[in-house]
Design brief:
- Helices cover 38% and strands 12% of the residues.
- With 150 residues, the protein is an alpha+beta fold.
- It has a two-stranded antiparallel sheet with strand order 1-2. A two-stranded antiparallel ribbon has the order 3-4.
- The protein is elongated.
């Protein structure tokens, strides 16, 4: 039976037959499967799990609302901005309407606003936040600092 040449052998430099080409494809597929299995074993050993499917915006909103209610149930209400004034960065901005509210919780005295792609928010604004905001070190249950500046 005549041998049909397909390509050059990787090591021998001689032409490969269709059968040898098929063997090479099988070998590559087995190696790829072995790599995938190894990665899965490593993930499992590290305790990594497959990511759950992404949540819809409605599901995210429901989870956030539920978590916020849990926190409210655990903590006493903070002083309001009327009782203890607080100037937000957006309050000093010339165009307050451009700021998008992401979080506004008077009970927990927590606010976050976003201003997308606007050159008027500068590095100086960021530096002001770094200097003036009351930053606290994160500590774990044992009281040790979990993250620090390095």
């Amino acid at each position: 039976r005549p041998r049909e040449e397909v390509g050059m052998g990787r090591r021998s430099g001689r032409p490969r037959t269709q059968a040898e080409e098929g063997d090479e494809d099988d070998r590559k597929a087995r190696k790829a499967a072995k790599r995938r299995r190894r990665k899965e074993r490593i993930k499992k050993a590290r305790g990594e799990r497959e990511r759950p499917p992404p949540l819809s915006p409605e599901e995210k909103a429901a989870l956030v609302a539920a978590r916020r209610q849990e926190v409210r149930d655990e903590k006493e209400a903070e002083e309001s901005r009327d009782e203890k004034p607080l100037q937000l960065l957006k309050d000093g901005a010339p165009c307050q309407a451009a700021w998008e509210e992401a979080i506004a919780d008077e009970y927990l005295r927590s606010w976050m606003f976003v201003k997308r792609e606007d050159p008027s928010v500068s590095q100086e604004d960021f530096d002001q936040l770094l200097e003036e905001a009351p930053w606290e070190e994160l500590t774990g249950k044992a009281g040790k600092v979990t993250r620090s500046e390095e």
